[in-house]
Amino acid sequence: MTELAARAAVGFLRQIIAGRLDVVRGWLAPDVTIEDPRIGRVFASGIAKHLDTQHYWLASVGATVEPIGCTGESGRAVAEQILHLGFVTIHLAIATDEGPQGVRSIRLYQSNLPLAGQHAGARPPMLPARSFALHGAVGDHLGALAQGDLERALGAFEDDAIVVEPSGGAAMYSGLDEIRYYYSAILAQGGVPLEPCTVTDDGVGCAIEYNVHRWGPHSIPAQAGVMVYQRGLTGRIANLRMYDDIDAPLGRSAPPPAR
After folding, report:
1. How confident is the model over 216-222, as a mean pLDDT?
2. In sequence order, what are the beta bridge partners of 41?
């Protein structure tokens, strides 16, 4: 894992909350951009004001950060965290790209549902789609989503796998029965093709930033997200966590079955 990219991804919010903004600025390249889901793209000239604003907001509500994990490869890192804001928790992922002069791009992914009770609206793609050769369970899962193939999608998971939706919390599905219930709703109208933009794979974890512009037969405004896969002992998917603010044409979430 590239050290600077990982340090920035893992420590970005923690250092902002603590008011150590000089540490954050020390990581950044002169031409850095920050993609914030609530604000949009922040260019280098606006970084100082953005960091100050975020510090005052997060510190004022007593925010804390709980780490989930970090996946890194070749100058990029994707850190997963839970941001606690009083009674609200936000599951988010922070992707960082490192350049010769420091971190040149920081991209935050999260759902707006826990904070505002609704999606924030279509979030434009941040990155261009690219072609990747994805093999094994990750490739099988993405291919199954694109084709709307429920059985193939389920075959990519370990028997005791866990799938976590972007809103986190109760939106979690454990075991193949619950995962079947979830994907039956997701794929009820057909495939949901995800166009990969980056792939960050350390052999165990695999983070894929993507764009999506179609849900079954419906065209939707192109939107950005990231999924993080964790492989199990068999190589199949043991854990899948999603971070986006996509509003499906007929609603995305399916409640977990009664236990």
Report:
1. 88
2. 35
